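Ticket #4471: complex job returned nothing on first submit. Input attached below:
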Amino acid sequence: MPIANSDSILIVDDEQLVAETLKEGLEREGHRCLIAGTGAEALRCLRSTTVALVLLDLGLPDMNGIEVMRAAIREGSDPDILIMTGQASADSAMEAAEGNTVGYILKPIELSRLAGIVRRVLERRRLAQDNVHLQFEMSQRLKETEAVLAISKASSSTLESQEALRRICRELTRLIGADTGAVYLHDSGSNQLVPLAGYKVPPELLPTLLATPLPLQEQGFHAAIWSQRRPVMSDDVAVDPRFSHEMFRLFKHQSGLVLPLIMDDKVAGAFYLVWWTERRRLSERELGLMESVAAQATGLLRNIRLLEQAERERRRLDVLYEISRRLAAARDSRSVLARLVDEASNLLDVEAAGIRLLEGGDLVLAARTVSAAHIMARARIKAGESLSGHVVTRGEPLQVSNLVADDRYDAQHKRGALEHGFQAFLGVPLRLHDRVIGTLNVYTKRCREFATDEVSLLSALADQAALAIHKARLLADAQAREREAIQLYEITSLLASSLDTEWILDQICDRAVKLLRCDAFGIHMPDPVRGGLTLRRGCNLPPELKDNLVLKPGEGLVGRAIENRKAAWTRDFRSDPSLTYTPAVDDLIRRKSPRAILAVPIIVRGEILGVLMSYFFEPHDFLENEIRLLETLADHTGIAVDNARQHEHERQISQMKSDFVSFVTHQLRTPLAGIKWMLELASQEPDLPGETGSYVQDAQAAAQRLIGLVNDLLDVARLERGKLSIALQSVPLGPLTQSVLEETRLLVEEKGHRLDTTPVDDGPVVRADPQLLRQVLLNLVSNAIKYTPKGGKIEIEMNGRDGQGRWQIRDSGLGVPQEAQGRLFEKFYRADNIASLETEGTGLGLYLVRLIMEQLAGRVWCESVEGEGATFMFTLPLHTETT
Amino acid sequence: MSPEPKRILLVEDDRVLRRACEASLRGKGFRVTIAVDGQAALDELEAWSDPLPDLILLDLLMPRLTGIEVLRALRANPRTKAVPVLILSNSSREQDHAQVEQFEIAGYFVKSNLSLQALGEHVARLLGD
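Support reply: We reran it on our side without changes. The output follows.
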């Protein structure tokens, strides 16, 4: 180990030659040597220079070496001393042993021995000094470690940032040995460092300290202190230009240390440590220690902030979750929005909040906190108006940190806001499907900037609000649709149950107000007698309107609806210059008519039957929905009225038919009966000349045919109109068939047919009207006889099974062509091939059969191969005792 | 010795029918009195010296008084209450039956569907010949 220069050796000897020799020898060894020839000179030297070892001659001219040694010790020097003496005596040895002597050496001095001794002494001395130093260092480190540990403990024992910083401040002050300490934290609102806590602040200074922030942005001060991003120390604050800010002049102190807390390269806070009177300087090591404590405090601060942030986030998420959960359960948007504005003001820690929604061209107040009564006073503002309007128009969040200076704000609202101490505003748009539907506003009484995460939180709430509104609207819409559909269905089914126009109008009028949710309702219809459109029905309308209102074509909304053939409405007819009325009507409706009017024409097959009217007593904007609903009602009204008219028409036709039937009955049958009876009388006359008898017979047959035709026509007419009274009873088919065959026996014999009937007693017993069924059998049997060439074969079979009575007649006639079989039972239809047959027929017979079978719940049909005869058959329900 | 011929009041407004009917019934040995409408029939009965006719043949659709009104008057009058009435109508049963059925009648025929022969047989049967 090289010997440091500071470790000088002082050679004290009055013999200059000896001293020089020793110096020269020791310097050759690398030591620095001084020489003193007297005791006084030696003491002087010791005072001014640090000396590690003194080679001391005892016999000096001015004083004894021992005395020099004692004086040096007294004066505080503590070099090691090696006595050089010419005569060793017990006394001198004793004397040399006291003090710092490391031994003595006898003259003449052997240089090499001396060098060895010197080297050992110096080495030992350095070791001893190292030990001392090390010991000091150790104890110092221990102290710091304890302090840092205390700081760590202070910081880890609390998660509340203020408390932690207060404790760190205390430990820091103790650690560095300052008299007083204070801690400041950055405030984003004012962008200053505001005092948080102090340690050992003299009570009289405490109010000043707590009231005085450290300005962060001030030029000069900022540059000198904060820009360094590390501790700044002054041992004479009063004259230090870096400490020129008045804060440091508020209380007189000698030394000061600013210890900034740097977070994300920004000053997040600071400690200020004060020494009232001591000129304190900090070693680099101490500064380093301070920095590391500051870093630790910063880390703590960061953790705490993160934790607080996380906690805040968690709370916000909780709130958002809670809100969305409530929204999911909520059915009306009003309560949801009311809760939302409360939450918004809680979450953002502001005093007031509110929501406006777009409705037409207006922004309508949807919800507000109670505190917002004066700042969102107007229920309805225009879409571009005021701060809300601004948010909606721009579709972006809008911040106003000082409302006084803002001129976009509605004057009334601004006055209200300022009167109640509101200073800052934040509004975010409510968006739904990329469309702005309103705004969520918050207002605070502090002058502040809203942070990004606050804006996004408010936006998240706004999203929730938009969803809630959307959902509530959908639900309300669906409910309204359902309600409308049900009521419409009720009305339609009601209308369908009647064919009486007046009754139908009554029903519509009774139900329309409830369906349309309007104040009043009316139906205008043309009145040819009074020469215009009159109010045929009115609900909640003054009777004068019904009695006296006659609208000329084109007059008023009714006229417009008819002219345009579509809905027409006015928000308030009194202030609608486009509507014109004749003076009399004008006077009447001005006094009596509701103000908002919707008119929808009732159009059926291009014809306008009238106009439906929906009224509100106060001005009202009719929504698309309301118009559509009235149009639907108009459609149903039209259909019902039209049906009723059709029915009336049919009833009249039916009446005419009925009249015709009566006419035919009387006017045809009376002369026919006359002809028939006269011919009968004539035929009974004996001795008719020549062919007269046969003429009379032919006339009788012709008359009979005409009578048959008239009978068929009447039957058909009655059956078609459903006017036939039917008396269902049990009818045994066997006897009925026998009776019919009896009646037609002559015809069968005339044509020489062979007729077979299934041998039956009574045959199946069916449920039918015997008179009508008889007509069926008569028709089918007559046809078989007529359409079968002479000498044909006719078979009748009947049976009853599976609840059905079946009757059929097969002939060996021409048969029915395939294509004719389906049409055979149509009115006036006659198959082509019977033209070849000389037989009379009206084409009514089988039609009548079908009509009767339909009335009797039976079925009749024909099976045939042309040229191989035909089979006609019918089925009827069997009669049972229970029926 | 032939019994006293049965007396029939024929109420019919149509001349041809009246004539044919009267001729046919006389030819079968009945004594036939004629009334040309409902009112005439009631007048005739009013003036009728007892005994009353054994049978009334009554048309329904007639001027002045309809057959139904005549029937109602007959049935309301104790004197004529029990006289059998045979309806000779132009209508099928559906049209007038409901009205007719509230009274007790001896029969109902549609004139054009009835031959004089059948009418005679029916009347004879009714009057116990």
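The first strand of chain B starts at residue 7 and ends at 11. Closing as resolved unless it happens again.
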